[in-house]
Amino acid sequence: MGLTKRYPLAWKRKLLVALDHLDLQVRPGEVFGLLGPNGSGKSTTLKLLLGLAVPTDGEARVFGLPPDSLEARQRVGFLPENPYFYAFLNGDETLRFYGKLCGVTGSKLEKRIEELIDLVGLQNGRERPLRSYSKGMLQRIGLAQALIHDPDLLFLDEPTAGVDPLGSAQIRDLILRLKKMGKTVVFSSHLLEQVQEVADRVAIFSLGKKVLEGSLDSLLAESQNTQINVSGELTAEQQEKARALLGQEIRFSRPHLSLEQLYLRTVQGLPDPTPAQNSRRS
Amino acid sequence: MIPSLFRIFVIGRNTLIEAVRQKVLSVLLIFGLILVGSSVYVSTIATPGLDAAGLFDEQIKFVKDFGCGAIELFGFAIALLSTAQLIPQELHNRTVYTILAKPVRRAEFLLGKFFGVILLLALAVMLMTLAFAASLYWQETVGFNYVRDIYDQHMPANWQNNPQMAAQYHHDIQDIVNKVQDPQLIKAILLLFAKMVMTAGIALLISTFATSSIFTIITTFMIYLIGHMEGMAREVWLARGAETSIWQSGLTGLISLLIPDLNSFTIVDEILAGNHVPWAHTLNLLGYAEVYLVVLLAVSIIIFDFREI
Asked: Is residue A208 part of a domain?
């Protein structure tokens, strides 16, 4: 409530208002998207909710607890923007390290690592040091470490930044799977189409202020219009009949795929270019 | 309490693994080991023509001076370089966010990182001490052969059958054993290690508010130098007695409080010179280092707690 963060700019003797009186409540089990241009306050909001920064004014609560309390952090997972992690550790070692920090040890930890490697699809990265990981693999190991202690709430800061469309789609699918598992997800993103596909509610930020908040259905519905989808192409005669039947102004157009849908359909439809498959085909 | 210690241990272990897998520190350690080991070779160059009994004493002292000097130099370099980059690297790579977003207190993070440096220093000192012990053992063997050669060449034949000469021979051999297997060397190594840990503590404190590793390295190095001169400065001022102004006394007091008295640790030179340094004095110095370190860590934790990350 009234969450505000100001950073002093010593050399200009001014204060930078990174976040200005934010009131926000996220409901259990929902996927909440934080939208806005760079520097609009999304990452600051996440830092304040994680207790990584101290608010100048206002108060943040996570599960009714101070966000920097160990009890709150035990229930929260975080994937920072452009995470680096420890490049000298391999995938398994990374998860083992973060798991132990959360108090997960022994066979329980090993079982959890197996589950998460499966969930994020990183079987080929278990023994490889993170310095050899691609951007998409880093994001996925980042997601796995955020989930290592099975948190109820996940904060993801630009989880698809710099990832190719396929990797980005995999992360989107993961968010949807997490939602099905009952997790609450709060994430920031610039990819509006992806936000639209996964988020239940969004808040739009600009210059440190929340300027819009609501469910996607309520924000995006054009209440003046009704959309009817018809299979197949209508002839001119059929279109005239429809107009006459409804007695309304009707515009007819062919729906388009988005470029992302076309790309994914094309790339995912291609055969797996592994030598075994290639030789079978030939 | 126990989960907290476990988290500190996990972070410390990870810091040690990082340092070991980093080639720079490994190379530094290898050079340290080579230098400590090479003291045997350098000592033979330094004292050519082994024809007088006293010269071998010089050789043993040279190996001790050279070995402990190398341990101190490389220990200092490892302590300074590894600690100076601890916090800036975590902030730059944003790995600190992933750790502090977990149920980990900032103090635990800082103590864990420092514990990792202590483990690294302990490992480095242990390996360099083994190399030092090996070079001393080698020097002992060379010494036995040297004494034997002297007796064979300069004493009458069958000198072994002469009880007086045999007793003198055993006395000379025992003299070498006493000088090489000097239990006081343990005190010297402990004091050098304490000095390294204090250096790392100073670097950690500076790195909690510094914005770059270079700043931390330069400032720590300056404090290290002042710490060695502090004792002398205090003695000069105290010797002037009534001439000392309030400002001078205040400044000396302030420096004594803020900067550790590293000059006291030059007692290691007395040990290497063969002079007896009592355990009580050694433990006093180790206690001083421990108290100073606790203060350094407490201040570091307070500063890091308030730092915007």
From this structure: yes
Q: Which CATH number goes with the domain that contains A150?
A: 3.40.50.300
Nearest CA in chain A to B306: A54
Nearest to A168 by CA among A200, A195, A144: A195
B163/A271: higher pLDDT: B163
Name the domain count of chain A.
1
- Strand pairing report for A153-157 and A14-22: unpaired
Helices B106-154, B86-93: axis angle to 10 degrees equals: 140
Cα dist. A148→A61, A99, B86, B113 in Å? 22, 6, 25, 22
**Tens digits of residue pLDDT in B172-181:** 888 888 888 8
Give the range of the structural domain holding residue A101, as residue numbers without chain letter: 3-219
Residues 21-40 of B with CB under 8 A from A: 21-22
The answer to whether residue A70 sits within a structural domain is yes
Radius of gyration (Cα) for chain B, nearest Å?
24
**Cβ–Cβ contact A17 with B under 8 A:** no
- Specify the pLDDT at position B201: 96
Q: Does ipTM top 0.85?
A: no
Work out the pLDDT band at B239, boundaries 50, 70, 90.
low
Is residue A255 domain-resident? Answer: no
pTM: 0.84
